[in-house]
Amino acid sequence: MDGLDGGIISGSVGVTGDLTVGGRPVGYRSGPLVLGGDSPLGCVSSGTFTNGTVSFPASFAANPVVVATVDETGDDNGAIWARLLRLAPNRVGFRCGNAPADGINWLAIESGTFTISGKQVEAGVASGAVSGGSISFPTPFSAPPIVLLTVDETGDNSGGAFARVINTVTTTGFQYWLDGSSDALHWIAMEPGDYQHGRYQWTAGVMGTNNTCSTPCTLTFPRPLQTAPAVLLTINDTNNSGAQGLRIQRVTTTQLRFLLYDTTGTGLATENVFYVLLQELN
Questions:
Q1: How far apart are CA 121 and CA 29, in angstroms?
Q2: CA 64 to CA 90: how far, in whole Å?
Q3: What DSSP assignment string belongs to the chain?
Q4: Counting C-beta atoms within 10 Å of the first and last residue's C-beta, which end of the chain has fewer, N or C?
Q5: CA distances (Å), 175 to each of 101, 163, 170, 184, 205, in order?
Q6: Is 14 a residue whose pLDDT tops 50?
Q7: Distance of alpha carbon 185 from alpha carbon 9, whole angstroms
């Protein structure tokens, strides 16, 4: 699956409902527009930096909320973080830390509060984000949601790189940690469970690790999938004393393996990891 090669867009982005032929989705659905995939062009060597750009297969009306995770399933050797830069309605750029990445798994959605597959989804951007900040959900959830985070340094390409959820997510909001002040922090919150929206289906959940994952941690999927999914991950370190970042090591139709990282040398032990398993139904 590759969000860059999503096939022909049938109908306009402004249509409502899922466009299907023979029961299979062929269009990108609005209300909200959701796009995602696994891009091999996410971060490649570019002078002294590792940069890349993903062109969206459909344009948003305004800059979307984007979350991303480093994919090192090719050689398990490369970047340990990715942040946004050069964000626009039709594309997003990435910068990766220290080395190229085999790929970037990404998910983009309109900002706002939505109901998808009967479940609540909210997405937003916190400008001028500083470590220890908090996000209040515009509309409270009925139960604590899963939360995905990614740093955005579109403004000056200088600042934080790692982001994690700290303490316990509640029905009204969450608190976050950053390794440095950032231009912005993108966040997506959604009820755990299964979703289908236009060309995409995904599962959101939380994995309790209580582990360092210095050897790969493994998540066995609730059920086998048709193809290996794109995976979005965010750390939930409830005591704010554990891993800074993570990357994907291996993905199959039944399992995910990932590694945790800490650049300070203080420890990797982490309580939870929020995940989304995303498939595009071509």
A1: 15
A2: 9
A3: --TT---PPPS-TT--S--EETTEE-S--TTTTEEEEEETTSSEEETTEEEEEEE-SS--SSPPEEEEEEE-TTTS-S-S-EEEEEEETTEEEEEESSS--SEEEEEEE-SEEEEETTEEEEEEEEET--TT-EEE-SS--SSPPEEEEEEE-TTTS-S---EEEES---SSEEEEEESS--SEEEEEEE-SEEEEETTEEEEEEEEEEEE--SSPEEEE-SS--SSPPEEEEEEEETTS-S--EEEEEEE-SSEEEEEEE-SSSS---EEEEEEEEEEE--
A4: C
A5: 28, 11, 10, 15, 18
A6: no
A7: 30
pLDDT of residue 51: 84
Least confident segment among 67-81, 109-123, 172-186, 249-263: 67-81
Q: 41's torsion region: left (phi>0), alpha (psi -120 to 50) or beta?
A: alpha
CA distance 36 to 43: 16
Beta bridge partners of 25: 20
Tokens 């939870």 — which residue?
272
Average of per-residue pLDDT across 178-185? 94
Nearest C-alpha neighbor of 68 from the set 36, 106, 41: 106
Q: How many CB atoms lie within 10 A of CB 172?
A: 13
Please choose, from the candidates 153, 165, 55, the residue with its C-alpha nearest in 3D space to the C-alpha of residue 104.
55
Given this model, what pLDDT does residue 265 score? 76
Cβ neighbours, 10 Å, residue 35? 25
Examine the pLDDT at 23 and tell me if it is beyond 90: no
Which residues, other chains included, contact 5 with Cβ-Cβ below 8 Å and sequence gap of 6+? none
Q: Rounded distance, CA 171 to CA 155, Å? A: 31
Predicted confidence (pLDDT) per residue in 190-240, tens digit: 999 999 998 999 999 999 998 899 889 999 998 999 999 999 999 999 999
